[in-house]
What we know:
Layout: H1 4-26, H2 34-63, H3 67-94, H4 102-108, H5 110-127, H6 131-137, H7 139-145, H8 148-162, H9 167-183, H10 186-192, H11 195-199
Helix pairs in contact: 1-2, 1-3, 2-3, 2-8, 2-9, 3-5, 4-5, 5-8, 6-7, 8-9
Bound molecules: protoporphyrin IX containing FE.
GO molecular function, one term: metal ion binding
Main location: membrane
Membrane topology: Multi-pass membrane protein
Amino acid sequence: MRYPWLRLAVFIIGALVPAYWLYLGGVGDLGPDPGKVLVDNLGQGALVFLLCSLAMTPLQKVSGWPGWIALRRQLGLWSFAYASMHLMAYLFFLLGLDVESLPTEVLERPYITVGAAAWLGLLALAATSTRWAMLKLGKRWKRLHKCIYPILLLALLHMLWVVRADAGRWALYATVGAVLLTARLPSVQRSLVGVGRQGSR
Ligand code: HEM
């Protein structure tokens, strides 16, 4: 395994952050509605890891350092893990474990429908993120994993629905997302190659 210390550092951050939030909730430091704060924090965490995962290819192209790519899959899996914890916290704290009402929520609340679609997309990508799935799916693997971009758009739409009054925070995530989507355009990708290395000469 390449870059084991880097992977370990990402693993520790990914695991410690939600544990710290749980601790804050446990000691009463998450405000009057800790369940809602936990749901929100985990949702934002899922989005941050998704954006970080998408940033790895452009960073590799600019710097030429292969370590970025070594982290891409792990960051994507953390995005899925946070989105799953977000879903579980929602079921536990906001629905009071009334799992039977979930289908109604998904069908009747458009922002939940969109969030669920994003989660299912992340599930499909996580399930096919292994080397075995890559070999088995061949060319279809790349096409499937390009769904990460529509998934990002769904996650941003889901968030916009929730934070309408606080659009500034959303705009920040959306801007980063737009920059990363632009970086995927073939002409931009070509111009990114080696930019960092040229600058350091
Ligand atoms: C079945 C899947 C999902 C459900 C049921 C769900 C549910 C929710 C709910 C109920 C809220 C608002 C909580 C509140 O009242 O403040 C929320 C907010 C949010 N969700 Fe989701 N969500 C899902 C999937 C996702 C996914 C896949 C992502 C990102 C990849 C995501 C990111 C967010 C973000 C960023 C917020 C806003 C947090 C904030 O206000 O700071 N959600 N979600």
